Amino acid sequence: MEKLQRIKKIDLTKYTSLVGLIGLIIASAILSPAFLKPVNILNILRQIVPNGIVACGMTMVILTGGIDLSAGSLFALAGVSVALMLPIMSWPAATVLLLVLSIGMGALIGLAITKLNVPPFIITLAGLTAYRGIAMAMTDAANIYIEDKSFATVLGSGQVPATYVYIGLAAFLVFSVYKFIKALQTPGTKKAKESAKLALICCGVGYMGYLVNSTGFLNVQIVYYVIVLVISMFLLNKTVWGRELYAVGGNFKAAKMTGIKADRTVIKAYVFMTLLGAFAGILVAAKLQSGVPAVGVGAEFDAITAVVIGGTSLAGGVGKLQGTIIGVLLIGVLNNLLSLLNVPVDYQNILKGVIIFLAVVIDTKFKKN
């Protein structure tokens, strides 16, 4: 009986964020007539891209029991760096070079944590301060305008024609139906659950098609986010490294005793986090057409909030990217609603603080149970 109650509690946490998102969407539609307009929904999807990309990396890091507070400052450093590099090299070369450098930075952070036993909170807090300081020093605290129009178009304001979006949505729907049929052929599969999942996917695909049809295109940054999501979900759900993340976060010592190279697993998590942080920063620069040293303040807390709201435990070892997606959407919808209602930024930050507190309390409560 006790075991059954525990399972019910765990299941409750899985759906709490989804119920919260649905409730917030309903409230937003009631409070602001402009909320459900296709242009506004697409704007929300575009606005969540940087936070969504960073949240993918943050999920990996938090699964190991760690944390990264430097993501927002990394936005600024990557953005001003690419802005300064573009006059002397092509944007593909500058982007690749920055991403390679970010891999090295992530490896150094991971090594400091695993080999020097520096707490993740401390080393990434140092990064938060240092990255921002470097960005300010490189630009004298001034914005650097980006003249390369192809960079701004391909990575920022580019538009994917509706036809290509429809093809992608159709392919995803066919794949989902294939997975559904395959699941039904597996003994023990809950048909009702799989049917509900497929119905939800069909509704999502149909609504996305409706949104794209209303404008005739989809912003390219949303496509980049989808690509990052697919890669992240594959790494977490289909690779050995993904399984090792759960094992290391669940019990570091036990994972090492089973033969898992725990230190290497943690280092890879911070490499992935820093890589995605730099990529998000480059996308922000492309969107703004400027390297802005003051950009990204508090971005790391938005990502952490989204991950925790999505059900990933701060203690490590528990969580899924599907939950993180819901958390990112919830934060995005909340930000949009508060903006539509003209709520001052200070009060928005207070509300976010309350949400973080409640998310941590809920996480701690269910972790104990």
Written overview of the protein:
The chain is an all-alpha fold and 369 residues long. It has one domain. It is built from 16 helices and four strands. It has helices spanning 2-31, 38-47, 49-63, 71-85, 91-114, 120-139, 149-157, 162-184, 191-215, 220-238, 240-250, 252-257, 262-288, 299-309, 321-340, 345-368, and strands at residues 144-145, 159-161, 217-219, 290-291. Strands 1-4 form a two-stranded antiparallel sheet. Helix 3 runs antiparallel to helix 15 (321-340). It is globular and about 55 Å long. Residues 1-12 have low confidence and may be disordered.
Set down the secondary structure blueprint.
Elements: H1 2-31, H2 38-47, H3 49-63, H4 71-85, H5 91-114, H6 120-139, E1 144-145, H7 149-157, E2 159-161, H8 162-184, H9 191-215, E3 217-219, H10 220-238, H11 240-250, H12 252-257, H13 262-288, E4 290-291, H14 299-309, H15 321-340, H16 345-368
Helix pairs in contact: 1-15, 2-9, 3-10, 3-11, 3-13, 3-14, 3-15, 4-5, 4-6, 4-13, 5-13, 7-13, 8-9, 10-11, 11-13, 14-15, 14-16
